[in-house]
Amino acid sequence: SENSILEKFTLDHNENNNIRYAHTDIILEKNSHLELFILSKGSKFFKNDIICSLNDNHGSISLNGIINLNDNKHHEIKTVINHNEENCKSYQLIKTVLNDESKSVYQGKIYVNSKAQKTDGYQLSRALLLNQETEFNAKPELEIYADDVKCSHGSTSGNLDENSIFYLMSRGLSLGQSKELLINGFLQEVAEKISDEKIKQLVKKIMGIQE
């Protein structure tokens, strides 16, 4: 409905052999705001599809997520943000950490209708691959039919920075402590975007993120 605020937090963090599928389809009306947060960690397989349609003026969505996998887990997140009217905003940030033989897929699309002038759309995916056996696939997409818009998308993946590890070890930290500190710093940016303080602290506790 108009002038509404919705917060939805999905925390998949308990270790299990479950195979999970989730589908979320949300329509935002005038002056409505949606905050989505995803922690994708515990299940053996998890496929999470999210569709959000901004169907009236001044709607906005903030979608943030952490994928943190080990063993041979396989998790996928697919997002589609439909900008159907003008003066709407969308923000997406997904960060991934993969270890062992885990695999992850992130596919994110921003669609901008020809009527959706003054659109502001942002999408970024970043991944840390902790060994050579991991596999990460990203497919960011923009489909734009309006000319007065600000939209960007991007995807990066790589290893922990060896110079940063060397520096931390020179300050007295072990190799394991150095890697943990860098991983926590990488993920903290996403956790800090959670508006609900209790959920934020819970996510930090689950991830071992220190203040």
Question: Would you give an account of this structure?
Answer:
The chain has 211 residues and is an alpha/beta fold. It has one domain. It has three helices and eleven strands, in the order E-E-E-E-E-E-E-E-E-E-E-H-H-H. Strands 1-3-5-7-9-11 form a six-stranded parallel β-sheet, with helices on one face. Helix 1 crosses helix 2. The longest helix is centred in the last third of the chain and has 17 residues, at 175-191. The chain is elongated, with a radius of gyration of 18 Å.
Please give a quick description of this structure:
The protein is of the alpha/beta class and about 210 residues long. It is built from 3 helices and 11 strands, in the order E-E-E-E-E-E-E-E-E-E-E-H-H-H. The N and C termini lie far apart (about 35 Å).
Number of helices: 3
Strand order of the largest sheet: 1-3-5-7-9-11
The average pLDDT value, as a whole number, equals 96
Number of domains: 1
> Which structural class do you get from the secondary structure elements?
alpha/beta
The proportion of residues in beta strands is over 45%
How many strand segments? 11
Provide the low-confidence segments as ranges: none
Name the overall outline: elongated
Rg, please? 18 Å
Ends apart, CA distance between termini: 37 Å
What is the succession of H and E elements?
EEEEEEEEEEEHHH
**Major sheet description:** 6 strands, parallel
Level of helix content? 10-25%
